């Protein structure tokens, strides 16, 4: 009987404040969709880091004859055979190095023609203008500085370059976008909480006669508060369900179909459905607990029981 009464009160409350309830649902849905989106963005950045950092190479470019006249680091002339042997031997001794690959001038020229054959500059280049290099794969890409410290400035070495620096700029941009989404999410959560508090307050005020009668007949505080808390929880849960729908639809149309980024951007390792599905229970739990707690604390102030 009591459960039936509480359920009937929930329906009455939602109908009386239909406009504000709709506003709560929309604000909760948007804020939690942004919340889930920011979590998925963090997962995507982490996945991309793991994928690309594993492919990162450190390159040691060696001086050639043309560098001797134009580059201050190569004033002693082109790299000698002994210098190359010593560099290779030192690299193989380093614990951070996993593999070392040598690229000759002819190989560098061939790779350049394959990648930039349409460039006007390509027709004027010759193999002897290209640089020999050692391409080093590290066991830990974060330890690039060990290689740079050991070989930068050494005789025969023109420069030490780390591809990780280029990726760091990309990941910095993605992280910045993620933090911007989190700020918008936080703002939307505040708006949602304010709407929930106001909805509960209006609902409690509109039913002050009923709650007064219930107090007179000895109803407990929790029994009086339960319909109001349940109303907020139901509205929040609907909003959370909508937010989950947003994420599922976005993943389906942006990555798999529609835009089909997974097919157009083969170089990016996109997060899978498992990452999305594991976030849905968290979003639903948040959509249920957040309005319930907001309603509970609002009732302590606006409903004297």
Name its key features.
4 strands, 305 residues, 11 helices, 69% helix, 4-stranded antiparallel beta sheet, alpha+beta
Give the helices and strands, then pairings.
Layout: H1 2-16, H2 18-53, E1 57-62, H3 67-70, H4 81-93, E2 97-103, H5 105-116, E3 133-138, H6 144-151, E4 157-162, H7 164-206, H8 208-216, H9 221-256, H10 261-264, H11 273-302
Antiparallel strand pairs: 1-3, 1-4, 2-3
Helix pairs in contact: 1-9, 2-7, 2-9, 2-11, 7-9, 7-11, 9-11
> Secondary-structure element sequence?
HHEHHEHEHEHHHHH
Unreliable stretches (pLDDT < 50, length at least 5) are: none
What gyration radius follows from the Cα positions, in whole Å?
Answer: 32 Å
Order the strands across the largest sheet as they lie in space.
2-3-1-4
Largest pleated sheet:
4 strands, antiparallel
User: What would the average pLDDT be, to the nearest integer?
Assistant: 79
Give the count of helical stretches: 11
Class derived from helix and strand content = alpha+beta
Determine the fraction of residues in helical runs and give it as a percent range.
Answer: 55-70%
Determine the N-to-C terminus distance: 22 Å
Beta-strand proportion: 5-15%
State the total count of DSSP E strands: 4
Which word captures the global form? elongated
């Amino acid at each position: 009987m009591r459960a039936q009464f509480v359920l009937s009160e929930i329906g009455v409350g939602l109908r009386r404040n239909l406009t504000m309830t709709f506003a709560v649902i929309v604000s909760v849905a948007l804020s939690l969709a942004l919340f889930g989106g920011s979590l998925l963005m963090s997962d995507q950045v982490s996945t991309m880091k793991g994928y690309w950092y594993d492919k990162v190479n450190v390159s040691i470019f060696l001086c050639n004859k043309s560098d001797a006249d134009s580059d201050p680091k190569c004033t002693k002339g082109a790299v000698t055979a002994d210098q190359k042997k010593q560099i290779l031997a030192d690299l193989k001794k380093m614990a951070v190095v996993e593999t070392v690959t040598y690229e000759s001038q002819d190989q560098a020229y061939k790779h350049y023609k394959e990648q930039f054959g349409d460039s006007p500059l390509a027709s004027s280049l010759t193999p002897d203008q290209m640089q020999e290099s050692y391409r080093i794969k590290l066991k830990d890409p974060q330890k690039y500085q060990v290689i740079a410290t050991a070989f930068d400035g050494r005789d025969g070495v023109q420069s030490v370059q780390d591809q990780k620096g280029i990726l760091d700029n990309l990941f910095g941009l993605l992280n910045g976008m993620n933090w911007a989404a989190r700020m918008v999410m936080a703002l939307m959560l505040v708006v949602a909480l304010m709407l929930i508090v106001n909805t509960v307050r209006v609902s409690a005020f509109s039913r002050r006669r009923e709650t007064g009668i219930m107090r007179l007949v000895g109803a407990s505080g929790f029994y009086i508060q339960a319909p109001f808390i349940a109303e907020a929880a139901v509205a929040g849960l609907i909003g959370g369900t909508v937010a989950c729908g947003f994420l599922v639809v976005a993943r389906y149309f942006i990555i798999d179909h529609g835009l089909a980024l997974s097919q157009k951007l083969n170089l990016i390792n996109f997060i899978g459905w498992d990452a999305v599905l594991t976030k849905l229970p968290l979003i639903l739990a948040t959509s249920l607990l957040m309005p319930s707690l907001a309603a509970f604390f609002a009732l302590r102030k606006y409903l004297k029981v």
